[in-house]
Amino acid sequence: MSTGNRESLQSRAFDPFHPPFPEDHIMSSTESNWFTEAYEPSGSSIGFRVTERLHAEKTPFQTIEIYDSTDWGKLMVIDGCMMLTARDNFLYHEMIAHPALFTHARAKRVVIIGGGDCGTLREVLRHEEVEHAVQVEIDERVTRLAEKYFPELCEANGDPRAELKFDDGIKYMADCEPESVDLVIVDSTDPVGPAEGLFNAAFYASCFKALRPAGLLVQQSESPLAHLELIKSMRMAMRSAGFQAVKTLPFPQPCYPTGWWSCTMARKGADLSGFRERGAATKQFATRYYNADIHKAALALPEFMREALGE
Amino acid sequence: MSTGNRESLQSRAFDPFHPPFPEDHIMSSTESNWFTEAYEPSGSSIGFRVTERLHAEKTPFQTIEIYDSTDWGKLMVIDGCMMLTARDNFLYHEMIAHPALFTHARAKRVVIIGGGDCGTLREVLRHEEVEHAVQVEIDERVTRLAEKYFPELCEANGDPRAELKFDDGIKYMADCEPESVDLVIVDSTDPVGPAEGLFNAAFYASCFKALRPAGLLVQQSESPLAHLELIKSMRMAMRSAGFQAVKTLPFPQPCYPTGWWSCTMARKGADLSGFRERGAATKQFATRYYNADIHKAALALPEFMREALGE
């Protein structure tokens, strides 16, 4: 497993919840107006010029910080890891929602595990075929802070089809009525800490059981360049849980390590070829990244991924 | 124009050639082992954990630094801007070379403007239809340092079809015999400093004149997210120089601002639909990113680009 904790450089200088950072990370940031997240496993960092830290708190699950920035709008940082910026979250949210929803023939019941910022829920509810979407976020504070600082992501929270639960997603899926769900979206933090149990065969088995035939699971699957071994192990665990077909879709995501990210889709009892291209091409809602051509493009794997994943 | 000088944060602390950095960039980096490049126009930064600065010099054109890093191999930095890492340059070099070469029916004569690290030349010479490829780099020191620190990129420098010229690319194209070239690749630094004159209609007119009918121009065109106005103006200038068809191909590039980059292709007297898909699918050389599916995928534009570029 090539993943691990991302280390935040500059937030720590004025973060009361973090222990002092290790010697080899020292950057005097008291004078600086950059928030920089150094990602240890890949030896690279990404930073944003910030103007203000608007909020910081320690919840029972994690620390959450909100910054304002000069060029990326507001930022949400969890345990020192950049979760989203107002400017570039559309890439992730559109790609974790629309390819799966335009692959399923008619996803009526959707479960989102994690996704506390509500951006994925908003994208899901753009689909009129969705009759019910429940977001199961372990940390209510993520959602409350999103409502305050990222109201645009929470636009659909009042939709009568939306249900916001604050609960353990692993337990939720384990207890889910068999064959009751069309799509499970795992929109979690990295596979360390609270999200660790969302990346293994036991969890995938719960999802498999909860899904109806031809149901889909889609999960954020980290960086193609930095986490190829994780992607391989996720795909293997999905298959061993019974999923018949698995595909990984890369997409750009500037605020995450290496600036390149992916989601992995798996399907129960069917292959992943059912893209409703006409539906995507004539969709009645606006997107900024996703469209029918981007959907097909995201299914093309770079040569090194094709080799590593045996496709 | 949304571009400007990229500001290097940490290199400056021990770079004798740079003036003191501005107040709002201060990070005490003497104790740090990260090289971080803050890109002013987009208010974001990208850094790499370095182990050693192997070389630094001021040439008549620019300052060049070479670092070793923990996870990205050697890095080349010009005027504080990350030019390449050993680990991720394959993305850029493959994407600036192969889509154009597999679009042209048979590119025999190729001109590379810039490209001093020789990685583009290496990719071009993988194509057996290429009979002659000249690299016109203004700064010989870039190539000499690449030979020393990135020998893998210079593997093809001894190929009898290769010619290495150290000269002004703007002048070279202006003086080029009309209709003598099949493909011009502009592999330059950002459109400031020595490369500024490579991003305007006068230069594109020289390229147009030098190209044979159905000849191609391809140029690195910065970040889709941070430089959309630049991309628009490049495309407009290419069209006003006479090019019939223009297409922009995005691709991931972790070491460049926003981690997302692009190249723009233009064609003389023909459209850009002639992709030799069978040639790409049966190519006799190895790539790590590019393949026939990636070629088609790179032609799919995200929705915001399609809207901005009128496609």
Please provide a written account of the structure.
Two copies of one chain form a homodimer. The first copy, chain A, is an alpha/beta fold and 311 residues long. The first copy, chain A, folds into two domains: 80 residues, Spermidine synthase, tetramerisation domain (Spermidine Synthase, Chain: A, domain 2), CATH 2.30.140.10; 221 residues, Vaccinia Virus protein VP39 (Rossmann fold), CATH 3.40.50. Chain A contains nine helices and 13 strands. In chain A, the strands form two sheets. A seven-stranded mixed sheet of chain A has the order 9-8-7-10-11-13-12, sandwiched between helices. In chain A, strands 1-2-3-4-5-6 form a six-stranded antiparallel sheet, covered by helices on one side. In chain A, helix 4 packs across helix 5. Chain A is globular and about 55 Å long. Chains A and B meet through strand 2, strand 3, helix 8 and helix 9 of A and strand 2, strand 3, helix 8 and helix 9 of B. Chains A, B: InterPro entries: PABS, PABS_CS, SAM-dependent_MTases_sf, Spermi_synthase, Spermidine_synt_N, Spermidine_synt_N_sf. Chains A, B: It holds the Pfam family Spermine_synth. Chains A, B: Pathway: Amine and polyamine biosynthesis; spermidine biosynthesis; spermidine from putrescine: step 1/1. Chains A, B: Belongs to the spermidine/spermine synthase family. Chains A, B: Its EC number is 2.5.1.16.
Record the strand order, biggest sheet of chain A: 9-8-7-10-11-13-12
Helix content of chain A: 25-40%
Tally of DSSP helical segments of chain A:
9
Beta strand % of chain A = 25-35%
Might you state the CATH topology name of the largest domain in chain A?
Rossmann fold
Assembly state? homodimer
Order of helices and strands of chain A: EEEEEEHEHEHEHEHEHEEHHH
- Major beta sheet of chain A, specifics? 7 strands, mixed
Give the tally of β-strands of chain A. Answer: 13
Q: Give me the secondary-structure category of chain A.
A: alpha/beta
Point out poorly predicted stretches of chain A: 1-31
CATH class label of the largest domain in chain A: Alpha Beta
**How many structural domains of chain A?**
2
Beginning-to-end CA distance, first to last residue of chain A: 21 Å
* Chain pair with largest interface: A-B, 54 and 54 residues
CATH-wise, what's the superfamily of the largest domain in chain A?
Vaccinia Virus protein VP39
The whole-angstrom Rg of chain A is 19 Å
The CATH architecture name of the largest domain in chain A reads 3-Layer(aba) Sandwich
Mean of residue pLDDT of chain A?
90
Shape of chain A: globular
Binding site for spermidine (chains A, B): 93, 117, 187-190
Catalytic activity (chains A, B): S-adenosyl 3-(methylsulfanyl)propylamine + putrescine = S-methyl-5'-thioadenosine + spermidine + H(+)
Enzyme class (chains A, B): transferase
Pfam families (chains A, B): Spermine_synt_N, Spermine_synth
